[in-house]
Amino acid sequence: MPVQSNPVESAKPGRPPAGEGAKPAEPGGNGKAKSKGKEKGKGASGGVGSVGVFVKEIVLGHGTVGAIASSSAGLAREMVAGSGIENARCVVEYGPGVGAFTGEILAHLPKGARYFAIELSPRLADKFQTRFPDTRLYLGSAADAPELCRQEGMNGHSCVDIVFSGLPFASFGPELQATIIERTVQILRPGGLFVTFAYAGLSVCTAKGRGFRRLLPKHFDKVSRGKVVWWNLPPAFVYRCVK
Ligand SMILES: C[S@@+](CC[C@H](N)C(=O)[O-])C[C@H]1O[C@@H](n2cnc3c(N)ncnc32)[C@H](O)[C@@H]1O
To answer: Which CATH number characterizes residue 183's domain?
Structure first.
């Protein structure tokens, strides 16, 4: 299985996995208890201020960040707009990094809806939990989403309304792309939505970006593309995919 690590077990000894270390949200809660959808710190997204954090991840050679900076607030709004989140009962976020999309997601999540995030990088997971201390985060791979749904008390099949993804799919090989997409389809309910973004250039100029673009219609009934958000580093657009 082309998963970089066995996530929940990958935490360093002495440091609990983020998912276990996170305080569970209140039953039926959505993690807004303290953060109320706004993270501590500056601004709605990690933005340019997070360049140092991302560059450090890249330099450390993990090869899974796929970006030089956190996404902009404009891209976060574009991810959430029109997703129907106001009617969602369960929302999952892949690769939140330092939480560029999370504030926007939590701000629109209905009271009582369930939310959890899955982040591969322990460093970014730490920063995320500092900004969103009461929000559920699993340290692991999005490829383990069905198993993590089961850990959340769901059946791992057709149980999620919306998956928001911050994953750098254009940096992933075809196998990992396919594994994560297949498992996403597995957890989404019929009619559920997968929202992800792509950097405008990479989606057409690289083989992996083109491969990902071709993969989506094979797994979803409907795939649409949003406008390019130029105020993002690099400019990006959103894919909305309906199961
Ligand atoms: C391009 S960054 C985006 C971060 C944030 N969503 C944003 O838009 O600024 C990609 C994020 O996905 C995480 N990531 C990469 N592979 C992953 C995987 N298999 N499962 C979960 N997270 C992953 C990286 O650690 C990083 O935080």
So the answer is: 3.40.50.150
Cα separations in angstroms, 39 against 94, 154, 229: 18, 27, 23
Instruction: Identify the residues whose C-beta falls under 6 Å from ligand 1.
Output: 46, 64-67, 70-71, 94-97, 100-101, 118-121, 124, 141-143, 166-168
What pLDDT, on a 0 to 100 scale, did the predictor assign at position 173?
A: 94
pLDDT value of residue 55: 65
Domain count, the chain: 1
pLDDT above 70 (res 4) = no
CB atoms within 10 A of CB 220: 21
Residue 7 placed within a domain: no
Using CB atoms within 10 A of its CB, is residue 173 exposed (0-12), middle (13-18) or buried (19+)?
exposed
Determine the average pLDDT of the residues in 81-91. Answer: 97
Atom of ligand 1 lying closest to residue 172 CA: 16
pLDDT in tens, 132-161: 999 999 999 999 999 999 999 999 899 999
Average pLDDT over residues 32-38: 35
Q: Evaluate whether 135 touches 31 at the Cβ level (below 8 Å).
A: yes
The H-or-E segment that residue 147 falls in is helix 145-151
106 inside domain: yes
Name residue 162's beta-bridge partners.
Answer: 91, 193
Structural domain including 212 reads 43-242
In a domain, 18, yes or no: no
Compute CA distances 94 → 13, 120, 133, 136, 148, whole Å.
Answer: 24, 9, 17, 12, 12
